[in-house]
Design a protein that fits this description.
The protein is α/β, with parallel strands linked by helices. The protein has seven helices and 16 strands.
Length: 234
């Protein structure tokens, strides 16, 4: 029962304007324990944007390890006959960033909320960035409703606490998240700088990992923040 909630990044740009799986994505795939993992992606948070889906396949086409990639779209209609069966047949599931509030509405409409819980309990590795980090938690800070960040408390709650991605790259995130937790608008939880993944085993944080020097994870409670030891991935 592994979740890797990434604060920002994960895929890294290439010289030719493409992207490749970075150490955090490779770490998520390694958690599957499979030599040729089946991994599917959901870009629900950006309206199943075809450019992002195309880039998903392109990044694996030039990857030097065997991966069986697929994707799940729900707009304008689901692209697979049985969403639950597809998720349960994967070794890992990736969720991209965008509107976490919109993502959750569409997931519940199509029964994906229940399917994700079942997949997680069955041992499918769940990972994602930004909205794909927030969604596993009870809530967090989001710009789903406009440029001003707002609290959001409608997550899947596989992880009961709250979450804040982009902790070091968006200047409003840190003070707002601390204030919302202090005032009780959000439950205490974990924040992640860009390039940092929060690795949960079951419902507990196992470790924080990073793909860049100096990036960290943070425990945020009503009394303030505490830096979490963060392991740099090789």
């Amino acid at each position: 029962m592994d979740i890797l909630a990434i604060g920002g990044g994960g895929f890294q740009p290439t010289e030719r304007y493409g992207a490749r799986p970075g150490p955090l994505v490779e770490h998520a795939l390694a958690l599957t324990g499979k030599d040729e993992p089946k991994v599917t992606a959901l870009y629900t948070a950006t309206g199943d944007d075809v450019a992002r889906i195309a880039q998903w396949y392109a990044c694996w086409a030039s990857y030097d390890k065997p991966v069986r990639a697929s994707h799940v779209a729900v707009l304008p209609m689901p692209n697979v006959d049985d969403l639950r069966k597809h998720l349960l047949g994967q070794d890992a599931v990736y969720v991209g960033g965008g509107s976490v509030a919109g993502l959750m509405v569409l997931w519940r409409l199509h029964g994906l909320d229940a399917a994700f819980r079942e997949a997680w309990e069955a041992g499918v590795v769940l990972f994602g960035v930004s909205a794909g980090s927030l969604c596993w938690h009870s809530g967090g800070t989001t710009d789903s409703f406009g440029p001003e960040l707002r609290p959001w408390t409608d997550g899947l709650a596989l992880i009961e606490g709250s979450n804040c991605p982009h902790y070091d790259s968006e200047e409003r995130r840190r003070p707002l998240y601390q204030r919302l937790v202090r005032e009780g608008a959000l439950a205490p939880g974990f924040a992640a700088d860009d390039g940092v993944g929060l690795h949960y085993v079951g419902t507990e944080l196992h470790e924080a990992v990073s793909d860049r020097e100096g990036a960290s994870a943070w425990r945020v409670e009503t009394t303030g923040e505490t830096k979490v030891p963060t392991r740099l991935l090789g």
